[in-house]
Amino acid sequence: MTVERAELTETLEDAGLSPYQADAYVTVLELGSAPVTRVADASGVPDPRIYDVLRDLESAGYIETYEQESLYARANDLDEIVDDLESRASRFTAATEEIERRWNEPSVEQSTVSIVTRFETVIKNADEFIREAETQVSVSLGVDHFERLRPALRAATERGVRVNLSIHTPNGGTESLPDAEELREVCSEARHRQLPSPFVVIVDRTKTCFAPHAGSTNEYGVLVDDSTHTYVFHWYFLTTQWDTWEPIYTALDGEPPIEYIDIRYCVRDVAPLLRDGATVRVRIEGADTETGADRLVEGTIADVVVPGADESVDAGTIASYGGRVGLVVDTDDGAVEVGGWGAMVEAVEAHQITVVDVE
Fold first, then answer.
1. What confidence score (pLDDT) does residue 3 get?
2. With 0-12 CB in 10 A as exposed, 13-18 as middle and 19+ as buried, what is 184?
């Protein structure tokens, strides 16, 4: 591709040369070795300025001057110049790519909530979040995206992370669902949602990735790194993607030890046992609501705290437990009130509850 002289000098100016320097350098390239006076005549550089301009070009490595009856100028070896220009071009290219990346993928670390324009950004962050998960992952996705996240889900399950997988299929059919062996490798429990659904990944109570389902008018995504906002998505997942759909696989057999990530499921299951006179021993890992420090509570459940009338604990859906829900645990140091995610009035916010024994 041939570049016009004016375009070449303009590009050299963009690379850092002054207009006179760019003009003089292109002239030297065209003339080859030539007297300085001829360079001045053939270029647009005024005679009084030509020596200063050529001296600056020589200092920058573009040309060299030498004496031969009079002062001559010629272009230096091109390798150094080409390397310099290519380096500048690479920096411009890198800057362009970084600008595009930052426009498309705002950093979650810089904001608690980020809106992104591409689904690829959402699923990429979901994969990273799942690989970093420590305790729990809740996922709602279609079978078309399951394969993309399968390696990350498998790795989380192998680390002992509790993975709840809600998976939907085209037209609600079961033909394309993973079989039980595949599900065993990637989750603790799976449910089949028979309706199209948004893409949702919730990790460790703090991180969320969300994108509308494929039929949405606009393509966008939401990335969250904040427990308060994530709590909203958590309830959305429980009430629309999880609790109303039947399990198609579970690794839980209902016999102690039984682990709970959400206190509401624990309260629903143990309240009838308490009414029947059973002794339920628990181990609760959580945080002190005053100091935020890790706290371990071990003992027997003395009572449950539920919204409304006592009989509401028999309700089948977790949506019935929208108010305050908690446990009163008798320990060696006295009774301790334990709440769930976001607990404020209780002494402990439960992160994981294990029913150790039922007698």
1. 62
2. middle
